[in-house]
Amino acid sequence: MSDPPGLRERKKIRTRNALIDASLRLFDEKGFDETTIAEIAAAVDVSPRTFFSYFTSKEDVVFYDNEARVAEALDVIASRRPGETAIDLLARAARHTVDRDFHGPERSPESAARRERLIESVPALQARALRLLFDTQRRVARALYEACPGELDPVEAAAAVGALVGAARLAAMTSHDSGASWEETRAAAQRAIDITISGLASLRSREDEPG
Amino acid sequence: MSDPPGLRERKKIRTRNALIDASLRLFDEKGFDETTIAEIAAAVDVSPRTFFSYFTSKEDVVFYDNEARVAEALDVIASRRPGETAIDLLARAARHTVDRDFHGPERSPESAARRERLIESVPALQARALRLLFDTQRRVARALYEACPGELDPVEAAAAVGALVGAARLAAMTSHDSGASWEETRAAAQRAIDITISGLASLRSREDEPG
DNA sequence: ATGCAAAATTGCAATGGATGAAGATATATC
DNA sequence: GATATATCTTCATCCATTGCAATTTTGCAT
């Protein structure tokens, strides 16, 4: 899987990165809708057709690192610690992801904020972002369910993940909408997570009772 | 606003309904992607261009009744009963919406299920659905905040709404994914709502303590 | 080195959604 | 009726996206 990558692989990665860089730069300079595939391809000196062998759509470029993010979250879920409850595990994954999103290694906070603004301003990107968010939640819910055999049923896992992500996301949106800073928004998301985790945790005692 | 609607208004409504009916019928018969705007327009005997003066995109037709649904939910929020807590109010709105979605008056359960299947099978429609869902949540969160002055701050309202909707939605998706029936899915959504409401309600006691 | 198979890239053409503009037509208002 | 206005049609255009066939590049084995 991680042998010395051959020339073919290296070239592919280089092209992919070049497409990402050119795309994000152009989106930032001219706007998303105003940037054509032809321009992106020209900037990287490949055929426009080639763009679509790397990304399924213009929107996809913006979320180039999504898969890596999800993989990290799933890793956390998979690394359940002894004695850790399902909710605690979920909370840890949430914390990890928030930290990664706001202090992540990938790119500067400026570029992250720029991307947020871009997504915010383009309906097609908002739609894609939400789609990815839901796909992610499904995968996390399934992973959580599988990491905690006998402790949760699939619907409970889904409810927990959905509640947590839903709360964090809408809280962040609301905070952001009201003009809050990057840090304040992060804090709002964190608070929403804490609230939801407490709520979910307080339910566990009820689980054993007859219903 | 509700004067005797003139001929112009009536014709507009008639055209709009005809476009909706023809669209849904064709989507069902041939599939979404396989149906072109030209065909829809031809079926209603209007110019293709006219379609876009009624709907901003092909996807929009499928969600023709969304605005009415949201309006109902907001009505419930606005009709807070004496002594009703914010969370109880939210729970009531959620119950109302679930009932409406599953036993609603609009169209038959079959057509509702058909629509679900359609949305499920077309990525573009899923994306639009999620987009609308989030817009709705924002509006509901704001309404809830305004209906309960002093009881919640905006971030808490957002967290509550986000948690509730997120839990219900992902639970329903998960249930549906596993091949559950319409009724079972409804039950799963209801259970997720109950779980989340209990969790949120149990937090209220903590609110007054110093933090 | 050389040949061959697989993978990647390219050019080309076609589809179809979406938008803009100008003119024709129908409806409302007086 | 006459005029203002909303609506619809026609026509032109842009561009994302896809399929296909031809061509080039790489991996690998001789």
TrEMBL record, chains A, B:
Is DNA-binding found in the keyword set? yes
Q: Where is the HTH tetR-type domain?
A: 13-73
- Pfam families per the record? TetR_N (PF00440)
Keyword annotations of the record: DNA-binding, Transcription, Transcription regulation
Gene3D superfamilies to which the protein is assigned, alphabetical: Homeodomain-like (1.10.10.60), Tetracycline Repressor, domain 2 (1.10.357.10)
Summarize which parts of the chain are annotated to bind DNA, as ranges.
36-55
Give the protein name, as stated in the record: TetR family transcriptional regulator
Q: Which organism is it from?
A: Microtetraspora fusca
Provide the organism lineage as a comma list: Bacteria, Bacillati, Actinomycetota, Actinomycetes, Streptosporangiales
